[in-house]
Amino acid sequence: MKRESTVVVIDDTVKRHTALIEDLELDYKKAVPIDSPDEAIKYIEDHLDTRMIVILDYKFGKNEPTGKFVLEKIREKSHLIPVILWSAEDIDKKDFAEFINNGTMALVKSKEAHEEILVRVKEADIQLSNSVEGAIEEWLEIHGETERANTFLISSDGKKCL
Amino acid sequence: MAINKILPAGKGRKKSSSSETTKTSNTSEQGLKFRFDVSTFRLLGRELITDRITALFELVKNSYDANSDNVTVEFINVGNKSEESKIIISDDGLGMSYTDIKNKWMVIGTNSKRNSRLSPAPYYRAMVGKKGVGRFAVDKLGSTMTLRTKQKDSSSITVLQTDWKEYEKLSEQLDLFDSSDEKNDKKRKFFTDIVNKTWIEVENTERQGTTIEITSIRDPWSKEDVTRAYKELSKLVSPIRKLPFPFQIIIIAKEYKDFEYAPVKSNAIEQATKELTLSFSKEENYQETLRYIKGELKVIRIPFRSFGPIGFKLYYFNQKGKRQFKEKNIGENIDGIKIYRDGVITTPFAEYEAQDIKKRDVLGIDKRRYSSFFDKVSSSDLIGYVDITDKDNPEIIDSTNRQDFVDNPEYRELKNFIIDQLVELENYLKGEREQAKKTTKSNLKTAKEELSSFSNIVLDLKKSLPSEYHPQFNLLETQSRKLKIDIDRGIKEFNNLEEELVRQENLYLSLMSLQDYSVEISHVVRTALYKISGAASFIYRRLPNPDLDASFKRYAKEIYDEMQNLGSMVDFLLSYAKSNIDFVELDIKALIEKLFKQFKHIFDKEGIQTIVEITDTLRLIHNEKFIEDIFENLISNSIKAVKENSGEKYIKCTGTANKNELVLLFSDNGYGIEEPDRHRVFNIYFTNTAEQGGAGIGLYVVRTRVEAMKGTVEIVENEFKPTGATFKITLPFDKTKKQ
After folding, report:
1. Other CB atoms within 10 A of residue A159 CB
2. Is ipTM > 0.85 here?
3. Which residues of chain B neighbour A15 with C-beta distances below 8 Å?
4. How far is B278 from chain A (nearest CA, A)?
5. Whole-number Å distance between alpha carbons of A96 and B650
6. What is the DSSP annotation of A63-98?
7. pLDDT digits (tens, 9 = 90+) for B411-465
8. Checking CA distances to A149, which of A125, B50, B386, B709 falls within 20 to 30 Å?
9. Under an 8 A CB cutoff, do B527 and A19 touch?
10. In chain A, what are the domains?
11. Interface test with chain A among B368, B399, B537, by most A beta carbons within 10 Å
């Protein structure tokens, strides 16, 4: 059975027909390869109500924003999306600290580590399933706008919580 | 001055902290509060403020933020540590009230400066201190501090005494505590429990401002240390932007000559070899930028860039200029480009690093891998001031550690703009050097000619005079002959040297190109391995599954293709390793025709027609392997591009030479290059022909080889219509011709 998450792979070398994408497509709801940092930021902003896991490359082409910038942009919008950093290059010490501070879930140091990335994605998915935030996101996804407006809880002093 | 009243130290604090203790120990249901261990101040003070120059800088910066006109930093008996050693920092700024001391100075991380980015009227200075930890800088300088502060029109001086030794003592005691024993909890004191003495004194004067007296200094200050402080403080305010309300720093260290009373001044830079100024106009909406055009470094106007208008002053120093600068400004470094916001330094922020090599290069000036080795200018050749403002450049945002800016498109463009200026300067310097070389050569030639006519005149004179005068003329003749031999030798040496320099330069360039290339090759090999391992993992984990048969087949093929790619990569590296780096004379036409012939079997198989139109006389002196690499890759790239054509398939190469350069046009009528891809086709690993085994290396090799030959390659309008691609390669003769 497929897992509920959409996995977004932000990497300038990733293509639709690669083993990683197909592997993810077979096991997850959707796998979305995006090769441009700007498009990736837009995709994430447009799908904030989706249960999402991000695999993020550290360096893109010359004059392109870096993975650090993409992560900052993601974190401006949401702290709930697990981000797995994926890089074949050594990460600058200062950048590494910022990645950690910005809640990077895991770091996969080698691009050959195909199976390690699958394990990390699975862990992220389990984390999402077990977290309260994950539950709220799922609830938001299942319920339409009108349903969301309905009273969900009534507190002991009679106040309605939406 | 009389002590009016002594206030209970840390008024109200003691009471509340003891009640906190009661609460927490009685009822854990009511929750727990964070308590600060004494090590916190160490963390804040000693680790955030990395050295004592930075500490001094932090305190002076506080004076700036407090609208001071003057700040005096006085070192008293600091040469040797003693009880009399003191550092006094006093300003004539706004001063603080008792409430300010209590609610701002004594509260760590006070965000009053963050709430308002400008200091009070009429100065409206953009606040420099933002972290709220500057006060911990004192600890870096000495362990006791007396702060006296007075506001305008107030007769009260608030005095605060902090003895960091008390904190240290507490820290030592805490180490002996058993924190698991609840009984000890009441006895345990925290950072926030230490009482700092404070009192109010009365003084009916007009004086205003804050004085910080630091005693029990941590380290002695030699004259060199004070000089260092002077030099770093001189960088606080931009030398090119006049502040509406000047800020003067004065250093006094009576025990040292030159520092009896030393107002800090930015050094007037008189020794620069080249001085450049760029400005802008908001009325006429232009930004000035440098452009090297026809032997001149011109300032031209361009529209504002995304980062907003900036002012830029740049001083370049050649070897002579550097020597003169060092002689005039002893101990001073030529230390690169700094950015000032609203007239005050932003980055590198109060950074002191004795070794130039360890300095951070936030603008990426020294990291430019692709710029030519010989013509590159580095931070140690430049002093520069970039002037930005909060208002005009809102997207250039300080990063939290004050050591760089937030990475965003505007900052990236600003960095590119600065680098562009340096590239234009480099082109100019290169032009100047070549001009100087030409002049020397021509002077030598003229000297030879003049000497020759001089010899002729001497000979004529000798003939016209009686023989008794001949011995003197013989002497003159011998000397002029000797001189002629020397000049001839000089010319020959000059030519040899020039030839040798060109050879060495080209050798360095090839090595650099190889160095760059090896980094990229490892990236390519890694990516191939990534594809292979992904595909192999997919197959062995998912087999057998009839639904995925097509995928299995595809991935098996992918593994095979990637192995082929790796194989050709190894072949290429081997050919590189074997290739001769010596330069030989090449007949371009014959070489290109030979390369086209190598691909004949593919042209025949695919039905591709080739056209090679190159002037017979074109000869280059260069490394044959470089030319082979360029054309092998262009040909193989074009084969892929025309393969799917339903009609005619053409690959064409034309070459023309003008006075200064060889221009080669290489065209095909394949599927062409989409506009958005044009700027990145020369990047490593960019490919549109992955299905045909394209690894995205070919055009990268073309670019690096052409650049190593000091040429350029670009995509121009396609020669064949409606589709196709044309590459224009320009190779300058002056780097390759025989001297």
Report:
1. 9
2. no
3. 690
4. 24
5. 50
6. TSPPHHHHHHHHHHH-S-S-EEEE-SSPPPHHHHHH
7. 888 988 888 888 889 889 888 888 888 888 888 889 888 888 888 888 888 888 8
8. A125
9. no
10. 3-161 (3.40.50.2300)
11. B537
